Write the structure tokens for this entry.
Amino acid sequence: MGKVLVTGGCGYIGSHTLVDLIENGYECISLDNYLNSDPSVLDQIKEITGKEVHNYPVDLVDKEALSKVFQEEEIEAIIHFAALKAVGESVEKPIVYYRNNIEGQINLMECALQHNVSHFIFSSSCTVYGKAETLPVTEETPIASAESPYGYSKQVCERIIVDSIHNKNMTACLLRYFNPAGAHESLKIGESPINPPQNLVPVITEVGIGNRKELKVFGDDYDTRDGSCIRDYIHVMDLADAHTKALKFLESKQLVEGQAEVFNLGTGKGTTVLEAINSWEEVSGDCLNYSISNRRAGDIPAMFADYTKAKEKLGWDPKRGIREIMATAWGWEKVRNKM
Ligand code: WQD
């Protein structure tokens, strides 16, 4: 087995997936330009796994530098995380998002095909479904028109992969994440956003630790059990496990060459914003400072997954719920603030 190239390997989901891959015996290399990550995470990965992971500090839009990596390394599989992913920022800077996410995908796929990479696993998102008419969301749920340049770049990248591997000897998995959150149980790695986080769970822990004044709950007048939005929060280590299982699925040659398979990665359980706050309060023993504010543009009332396909085909079954997510996210926030 050649090496597994993890793009965005120093990022949040990439670093946790590297840990799981290494613990499953894979030899991995990382490619990360540190735009939204820190090289120190590689030291923590070594502490957890005992293995050094080499990172190529390359930008995917630099085709020449990217090609050199494929000339120097024998790469058999790619897990592609490296992308810009802030929904709000993508609305302000669409060209930056299209260039980075789509041009980067094209360059990576060109190199992969030129160098006979066998397997490609793509970090996609439930965002591609938009506001789903029926819940839970299955892989057959129609793809809606994207609500943001970020979401559209994910839809385009999925299509680039499907069309590029057709009639080639490569197979692919497109993994549509719901809401990733939490941290590795060692609390040596976790979500370390370079820019102020926008996602609910890191905002809650920032407020909890005192680095942010209050949490604004974006609306409590939705048609849900308590009026706040419902999401399917998936623990990052359950997500990491799914990537390793997806790679094993591709290696088992259950797909014909040129085939790509889509999988939803969520727990199937919805949690409201107010329930998430309550979970943090139970775990921390503190009261969170929050207020109800206006709805956020683009938010949908409810979104949660049907992961039957991943369970049946990948043998994947997420083990951790919102409580474990909050316990590890809070533990990690305290470690980051040396408390
Ligand atoms: C969750 C809920 C907010 C912050 C996005 C992307 C998705 C994926 C995950 C990349 C919503 C509410 C949040 C706050 C709040 N990213 N909220 N106050 O929007 O479901 O999904 O991140 O793959 O692709 O679309 O996640 O964490 O921003 O919001 O009330 O300060 O928390 O309204 O209901 P979202 P989120």
